[in-house]
């Protein structure tokens, strides 16, 4: 393998790792990202790290502070509401297209995605949060499966990027709504299988809005240190 290819592979791997660590809260909102410290943790050079962090800055997950370096983007109530509204707008449109075009293979993948999510929700319902990352990963996979037949790669990618930002808030707040959310997921599956996009969009709207209000109602964002709030 050429040196250029090796460097590109290292950079891409580092990008995915740092991005995942931000989304899943291992790198906290407002945390300073010191290049010398990150170099050892992610096994890459300072110059490569700078490229990665600039890339994440363009995605809104990192903030560049001029000569002072980088930090993980903060969180705020207004930002959460805006992200949730954009997610709903994209997901409703994609969902309608997916319901119209989905075939039996799409149905099978959707059922499989829901099965994994439902199993993990049972674990969360016991109060065991040790697998919270798996829970949210399966949540992401289920909602992606719902819209997977929409026919637009760009729409899927845009939705995925917005969902990741929404997911970061859920990990920060660790907001699990219990059997209510579990039932909404089951209803979304059923409406998908009978291609009832009208009802599905109503459930989705309730699902997202209730998730936001549940997180805010617990006051978890307000309880974060000042540097974590954007």
From TrEMBL:
SMART domains: FCD, HTH_GNTR. InterPro entries: GntR_C, TF_FadR/GntR_C, Tscrpt_reg_HTH_GntR, WH-like_DNA-bd_sf, WH_DNA-bd_sf. It comes from the Bacteria. The keyword tRNA-binding does not apply. Gene3D superfamilies: GntR ligand-binding domain-like, Winged helix-like DNA-binding domain superfamily/Winged helix DNA-binding domain. One of its GO terms (molecular function) is DNA binding. Pfam families: FCD (PF07729), GntR (PF00392). Residues 8-75 form the HTH gntR-type domain. The keyword Secreted does not apply. Keywords: DNA-binding, Transcription, Transcription regulation. PROSITE patterns: HTH_GNTR. This is DNA-binding GntR family transcriptional regulator. It comes from Rhizobium viscosum (Arthrobacter viscosus).
């Amino acid at each position: 393998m050429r040196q250029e290819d090796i460097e590109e592979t290292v950079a891409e791997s580092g990008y995915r790792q740092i991005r995942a660590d931000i989304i899943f809260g291992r790198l906290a909102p407002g945390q300073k990202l010191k290049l010398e410290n990150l170099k050892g943790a992610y096994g890459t050079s300072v110059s490569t790290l700078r490229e990665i962090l600039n890339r994440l800055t363009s995605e809104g997950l990192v903030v560049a502070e001029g000569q002072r370096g980088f930090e993980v983007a903060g969180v705020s109530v207004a930002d959460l509401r805006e992200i949730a509204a954009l997610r709903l707008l994209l997901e409703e449109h994609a969902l309608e297209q997916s319901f119209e075009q989905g075939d039996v293979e799409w149905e099978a993948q959707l059922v499989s995605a829901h099965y994994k999510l439902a199993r993990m929700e049972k674990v969360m319902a016991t109060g065991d949060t040790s697998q919270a990352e798996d829970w949210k990963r399966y949540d992401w996979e289920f909602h992606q499966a719902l819209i997977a037949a929409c026919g637009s790669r760009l729409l899927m990618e845009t939705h995925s990027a917005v969902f990741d930002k929404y997911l970061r808030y859920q990990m920060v707040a660790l907001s699990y709504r219990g059997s209510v959310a579990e039932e909404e997921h089951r209803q979304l599956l059923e409406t998908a299988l009978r291609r009832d996009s009208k009802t599905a969009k109503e459930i989705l709207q309730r699902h997202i809005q209730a998730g936001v209000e549940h997180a805010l109602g617990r006051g978890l964002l307000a309880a974060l240190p000042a540097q974590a709030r954007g």
